[in-house]
Amino acid sequence: MGAFGFFVILLSTFGLPGLAVVIDFIGFLRTGNRVVNRNLMRIVEVLSLGVLPLMYAGFGSLNDCCGDSAVFSPDHQLSVAVVMVFCLTAYFYSAYRVRIATPVVEIMTNAFLFIGIVLNVVIAFHTEEFWMALAGNVPIILLALLMLVKNHRLFIEQSQELKSNTKNKFERIAWQILTLQPFLKYPIILILCLPILTILVLILLLAGQKPDSLVRAFTDTYKHGFSEWDYKCANVECGGHYLCSVAAKGHKKVVKPQRFGVRHGGLIICNRQLLVSNAFEELLQEKAPRAHKLISGQYNKVGNFIHRYYGVFNIKVVSDVIYFLMKPLEWLFLLTLYTLDRNPENRIAKQYLSISDRQQINNLSNCTTK
After folding, report:
1. Alpha-carbon dihedral sign for residues 113, 114, 119, 121
2. Is there a single domain that holds both residue 121 and residue 184?
3. What is the domain range of residue 136?
4. Fewest C-beta in 10 Å: which of 81, 119, 261, 265?
């Protein structure tokens, strides 16, 4: 798919629905009524409230220093997902119902609409993607605001019937809140979001979540607006042979470092094992690119695991152990190089050199073969 095709899909999925929501919201502010066709708005609601959360539904499977890191912490994603489900349920329940519920249910419905608004504001700042927020989060916020107004109007229309049925203390208090003027009613409901979220958090504890999971879902991440784990990526080297790179950091007498190398513009320690492994990968990529792609994809999972627990793999004793564990593979790589490559040592020597140094070795190799 070309860039133009991707732009068209992005525009039709987010831009046009978002524009429809903005027009409807502005029209409501001017006239007091919704101005966009109701059936069209149902489609817009599905796209705005369904597609965007689905994009975050994967949330990223892990925190990754070297790629697209998880939007929400993998260990705390369940809390965010459950809150999203409750917010969406409150919205679509409000959109399709024709009669009001009990006062307590009305309070909870409006509270989850407020929670959805706050959550989208936080997500917009966390992802730091302006166009995604403008096309995705802003329309959701506007839709939730419009639904709060609808709920208030519906309650006023049917409040007399509800008042006659209120029996217990909680219902009476809830009814009194619901009958307040909006400038008093909505701040009180916003405050009530805290105890409602507290109850939800207590339930999530049974599913293995932590009391502060909703906060840590944002903070225990890399490279996002509220991330507090960026320091864990400070010394992580991305790309290349993960295990061999770790093994090269062991005790000098064990892993026998030979020289420094260049990777992604930074210096790395190179020993014979790392150079042989990278030379083997280069050969495999030349001779069997499909096999290289398959193996590389699986091996990257090892790299993701290492990046997640990089502090452990940075201990010299651990590096020594990995060095010895990788020895059989090193011998297999070396055997393959000597079997399939006419100048295996030249290939090994070129690994992790600058472009100019590799070119010099290539020129010398060409001169010797003429």
Report:
1. positive
2. yes
3. 3-231
4. 265
